[in-house]
Amino acid sequence: MFKHVEAYPGDPILTLNENFGADPRPHKINLSIGVYLNEAGKMPAMGAVLRAESALAADLGTRPYLPMEGNAAYRAAVRELTFGGAVPADRVAIAQTLGGSGALKVGADFIARYFPKAGVWVSDPTWDNHYSIFAGAGLPVQKYRYYDAATGHVDFPGMLAALEALPAGDVVLLHACCHNPTGADLDELQWRELAALVKRRGLLPFFDMAYQGFGKGVDEDAFAIRHFAAEGIPLFAATSFSKNFSLYGERCGSLSVVCADAREAGNVLGQLKATIRRNYSSPPTHGARIIARVLDDAALRAEWRAELEGMRTRVADMRAGLYEALRERRPDGDFGYLVKQTGMFSFTGLTPAEVERLREESAVYLVGSGRLCLAALTRRTIAPTADAMARVLG
Ligand code: PMP
What we know:
By secondary structure, the protein is an alpha/beta fold. It folds into two domains: 12-45 and 306-392, Aspartate Aminotransferase, domain 1; 63-296, Type I PLP-dependent aspartate aminotransferase-like (Major domain) (Aspartate Aminotransferase, domain 2), CATH 3.40.640.10. Helix content is 47%, strand content 14%. It is built from 15 helices and 13 strands. The protein has helices at 12-22, 47-57, 72-83, 99-114, 128-136, 156-164, 188-201, 218-221, 223-230, 262-279, 286-296, 298-329, 336-340, 352-362, 379-392; strands spanning 29-30, 92-98, 120-124, 141-145, 147-148, 153-154, 171-175, 204-209, 235-240, 252-258, 345-347, 364-365, 371-373. The strands form four sheets. The protein has a seven-stranded mixed beta sheet. It has a two-stranded parallel ribbon with strand order 1-12. A two-stranded antiparallel ribbon has the order 5-6. The structure holds 4'-deoxy-4'-aminopyridoxal-5'-phosphate. This is Aromatic-amino-acid transaminase. Homodimer. It holds the Pfam family Aminotran_1_2. It comes from Pseudoduganella namucuonensis. InterPro entries: Aminotransferase_I/II_large, Asp_trans, PyrdxlP-dep_Trfase, PyrdxlP-dep_Trfase_major, PyrdxlP-dep_Trfase_small.
C-alpha cells in the first residue's frame, strides 16, 4: 500500500542537529540550530517564566478546550506587544498559534483561500521553511533580491527595484527583525521607504517576527510592523515566543491581520478561526497562560524584559568577541559583517565545502549555507571556533 512513499531526506537544519548529538568528539561545538544558549551553553529557563509557572501550578484548575482563536488574555497582551498601540485594537484580527510556524501556516492557508491568485515573494535567501509552508499551502513562492554577499548587507536598491516590479496584491514576506539566515536588517529610514513603496504598489506585506528583542530591543524590533500599521497598510504579522521566552516546545506564537475597520477585522478573525478549525481545531493552554501572566503583571513583565535584554547583549558580546578573535588570527580577512549584522545569526560567507571542513576537522557545526548562530557561542567556545574558521579560510 505504501510502496510509493519515498524516504524523507530530513530537514537540513534538524538533521544537522541530530548528527551533532551523535558526534562522539567531546570538544564539538554546535552553532547550527537557532536556539539561544546562556554562558554555560544551556538553554535558559527564564526567571519570570518560572515564577509565572509556579503561580499557575498553585491554581491550575481544569484544562478545557481553548476557543479556536486561543486564550483571550494572551491575544490581548500579544497584540499590545506586537503593535504597541500603533493601530486601534479592533482593527487587528489576532489568533494564538502553534509557534511562529503555526502562524505562517494559518496565514498561508488563509491567503490561498482569499487571495488565490497572489504570488508569494520571499527574500533571497530566507528561512527554508518559508518555502515549504507557503508552497505547501499551494501558493507559488519566488525570491526577491535581498542579500549582497559583497557588502555583507542588504542590497536595498536591488530589493526596492524587485518589489517595484511586482503585481499589486502579491504577498511580500518580510523579516521584521534579525533576518534569518543573514542577520542583515533594514534600518528605520529604509523601512519607511519600503512602506511607501508597498502602499503605492498595493502589495500585501507578511511580517515574520521570530526574534523580537534580539535585535535592538523589544520595541525597536517591532518598528517595521508598527510603522506599516500606522501608515494604514493592511498586513499580516506572525510572531513567535520560542526564543524570547525560551519556550520552544510550548509552541507559542500569534498571527495578526491588520484590517481597514472593525467589521473587516471581525470577518477576517472568523475565517482565521475556520482555518484553525480545519487544521488542528484549537491551540494548547499551558504556554499561553504563562505568557499572558508574564505580560499582564508589571513586575514579571519588567523582569522578563530585563532578562531578554541580557540575552540580547550576550549575543552582541559574542559577535564582538568572535570578530576580535578572527581579526587576531586572520588580519588579512574582513569580518566586519559580524558586528554589522544583528540578531542570533550571521552569514559567514563560508562555502558548503568550508562548512563541511569545519565539521569534519574541528567538530564545529554551521548550517551548509554558512549561517552561524552567535546565540549558541560562549566565551569558552569563541577561541576554538575562531581557530577552526581561520584554518579553513584558505
Ligand atoms: N520564522 C523564522 C524566521 C524562524 O527562524 C523561525 C524559527 N526558527 C520561525 C519562524 C518559527 O518559529 P517557531 O519555532 O516558533 O515555530
